[in-house]
Every structure is written in C-alpha cells, then in structure tokens.
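Q: I'm building a small set of examples for a reading group on sequence design. Run inverse folding on the following structure and report the sequence directly after it, with nothing in between.
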C-alpha cells in the first residue's frame, strides 16, 4: 500500500510540472503571436497602403495642374485644432483623425511622426518593402531618378527621370523592354529609351552613308557642358524624343508629345498663330540647338536630375544599330519612312510632309519619323557645317535612308528641315 501511494505522489508531481510547462508555452505563444496585435498590425498596414495610394494620385494631379510643381518641397502636416483646411486630409481623404495626428507629408512622401514605437516599426517595414520590391511602377510620376522596379539601372532596367512616368506602350513591359519604353512628363511630352548593352548595341558612331563621321569631334548633347558617355555608362542607355519637335505658338516652347493639328497648311514657310502646335520646320541649327536645350527649363524639369538638348550623332547612330538589330532596314527605309517612293506599309501619303506621328507605319521601336518626313538637325559637326540625318519626304528612301549623313550651314533654314530633342539624365 505504501508503495502504491508513493508512486501516485510522484506521478502527481510530474503531472503538475508538465501542466506548468504547457501553461508557460501557451503564455509565451500568446505573447509572441498575439492575435489582437496581429490584427492591429494588419489594419495599420492596410490603412497606410490606402493612404499612399491616395497621396500618389494627389501628387500626379498636382503635376498636371501646375508645371512648376516641385515635389521635393511639398509638405503637409496634421490637423490644427481639428480644422481640416490645407492639411494632410486634403491629399489623403480617407485618413482618420487619429492617424491624421500620426502622419505628415514630407517631400511628397508619407512619414510617420507618432510616438508609438511598435507602429514605427510596422511603418518602417512597409517602406523597406516598397523601396526594395515595388519600385516606381507604371503611370506614377517619379519624385527622383528611379528605375521601374527599384533595382539598379541597366540597359534592360531603364532609369525613369524625376518628373516623368513610364507609359506601358509595349505588350509585356517590363520584360519587353527592348521594344522601346516610353516616358512622359506632366505636360504629355514623350521620350523613348534606347538600350545600350555594349555588345549587340554599342554607343558609337558607325553609319558611313554619304559623308564620313569624325569620331574625335565633340557633339555632346549640351556642347561640352556634360559628357553624354557618362549617361550611358551610368544607366545603360539614353532617351530621345518620340516625335519630331512641334511648335507651341502661344508659349514659344517645344512639344514632343504628339501631333496637335493635322492641318497641312501649317507645314509651310510661315507660321499661323491660330494653332497652338504643329511641326517645327523651317528652322536652322542654331535655333534648333537653343530651343532643344531650353526645353527642360520651359517644362520646369529639375536641373539637377535631367537636362535636354539636340540629339547627337552618336545617339542617332546607336539608335540606328538598335533598330537594325530588330531586322528593320536602316539602309533602305522605304518600308517604314515617309519618302516620295515609300513602299508598303509606309506608302500612306505618297511623300507629302506631315505632322510627326501622322502614321503608325512611319515608326520603329516606338519612335516616329526617324526615316523621312523632315531632315533633322543633330549636334554633330562636319568641318564647319552641322549634320542633318534621316532624309526627307521629297527624296528616295533607298538613296537617302535613315542612316544617311548630310550637312548644311548652321544658319540655313528651309521647309524640309526639323529637329529632335534628346534627354540627358544626370
């Protein structure tokens, strides 16, 4: 009997110890996996995602309404004594009063300014995920020079300049990067990314049709004030305007977005102020260079992030190589350019001068009218002359194809001369 009682006492003690251990484990589990805290974290992060979405939309609208808008100085704080007014609530409509006292907008970004350390950790984790995984995305205006996915810039991962957004004009962007990413500023001006991988597409002059090129001649995009090679080395490519330049009569500025008027009478030796924009022909090199470089100022680009200038000879040749690699002939451009002898599918208007972007059959890699329409001034020098490229609507696309180099005096202007802008990302 005594033996049995002793055994029962030992079992009881062991059972109590086991219960204590299990209870401790349960308490520890509740402490580390608190369902109430997990629910609070999930709600907090959901709200922050919604706030960021609304703020992004508000920033985009600010760009559209005000070309001089500078996102780096856009700051909005909390409610003041419960009054909404010009505060964070205006730009994030769904924000609650409680959260309105925890967040501020600083440099166009949502910032947590509350005192709760746990919420600060949650907010930091959201910010890190956003920066490391999501990047800029499509149709979002960049508040700094940044790539689409937030990773390092490369020829197959284009840099999106501050003040621009990526436009999904290809079928499966970003994996379809080689078909020409289009970026757009707040005013609708568009540029196309030319990727330079250094193997299939090398940044160099190579076209020798007609006059030779001078490899040692400086034709940098801003006449020596910046080194255009640095852009390619840093980012793996460059941007050129999607269209030949347009003229905005009322503001005297360039538009490179799309055609504004299809009235053919505007394509003449004189300009008519009854239209706001049309093909900018009858311009000499000196003026083309000046207006190209001033475009960045006209549209309030951040001068520390991006500049504009006349397309260079090296940029033109490199673009030709990129197009040629897509099995598009650059030595006989009749099938994709506006010439007097254009062939199908480009024989749209039988060689009549048109607004840039007039026909989708006159483009390659999302860039319009590199072949035919107007000859285009470049920043390249030939002896004492300036080089023009691409041929014109009134000549043969086989004799004067897209690669063709010709030249004129810098002061010469005529109805068949136009120009194209390049974008330099700093």
């Amino acid at each position: 009997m005594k033996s049995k009682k002793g055994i029962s006492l030992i079992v009881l003690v062991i059972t109590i110890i086991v219960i204590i251990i299990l209870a401790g484990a349960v308490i520890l589990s509740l402490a580390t996996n608190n369902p109430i805290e997990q629910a609070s974290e999930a709600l907090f992060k959901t709200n922050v995602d919604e706030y960021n979405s609304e703020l992004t939309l508000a920033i985009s609208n600010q760009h559209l309404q005000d070309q001089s808008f500078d996102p780096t100085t856009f700051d909005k704080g909390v409610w003041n004594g419960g009054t909404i007014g010009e505060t964070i609530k205006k730009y994030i409509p769904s924000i609650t009063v409680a959260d309105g006292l925890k967040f501020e907008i600083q440099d166009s970004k949502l910032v947590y300014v509350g005192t709760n350390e746990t919420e600060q950790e949650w907010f930091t984790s959201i910010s890190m995920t956003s920066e490391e995984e999501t990047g800029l995305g499509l149709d979002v205006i960049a508040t700094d020079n940044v790539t689409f996915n937030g990773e390092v810039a490369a020829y197959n991962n284009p840099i999106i300049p501050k003040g621009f957004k990526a436009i999904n004009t290809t079928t499966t962007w970003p994996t379809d990067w080689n078909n020409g990413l289009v970026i757009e500023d707040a005013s609708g001006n568009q540029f196309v990314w030319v990727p330079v991988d250094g193997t299939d597409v090398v940044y160099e002059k190579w076209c020798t049709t007609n006059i030779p090129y001078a490899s040692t001649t400086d034709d940098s995009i801003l006449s020596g004030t910046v080194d255009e090679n640095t852009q390619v080395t840093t980012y793996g490519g460059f941007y050129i305007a999607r269209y030949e330049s347009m003229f905005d009569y009322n503001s005297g500025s360039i538009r490179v977005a799309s055609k504004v008027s299809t009235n053919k009478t505007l394509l003449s030796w004189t300009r008519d102020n009854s239209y706001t924009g049309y093909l900018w022909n009858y311009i000499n090199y000196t003026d083309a260079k000046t207006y190209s470089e001033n475009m960045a100022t006209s549209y309030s680009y951040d001068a520390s992030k991006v500049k504009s200038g006349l397309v260079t000879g090296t940029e033109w040749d490199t673009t030709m190589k990129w197009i040629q690699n897509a099995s598009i002939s650059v030595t006989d451009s009749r099938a994709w350019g506006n010439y007097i002898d254009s062939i199908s599918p480009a024989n749209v208007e039988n060689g009549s001068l048109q607004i840039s972007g007039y026909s989708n059959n006159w483009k390659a890699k999302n860039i319009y009218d590199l072949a035919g329409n107007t000859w285009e001034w470049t920043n390249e020098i030939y002896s004492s002359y300036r080089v023009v490229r691409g041929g014109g609507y009134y000549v043969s696309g086989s004799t004067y194809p897209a690669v063709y180099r010709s030249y004129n005096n810098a002061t010469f202007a005529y109805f068949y001369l136009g120009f194209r802008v390049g974008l330099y990302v700093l």
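The two ends are 93 Å apart (CA to CA).
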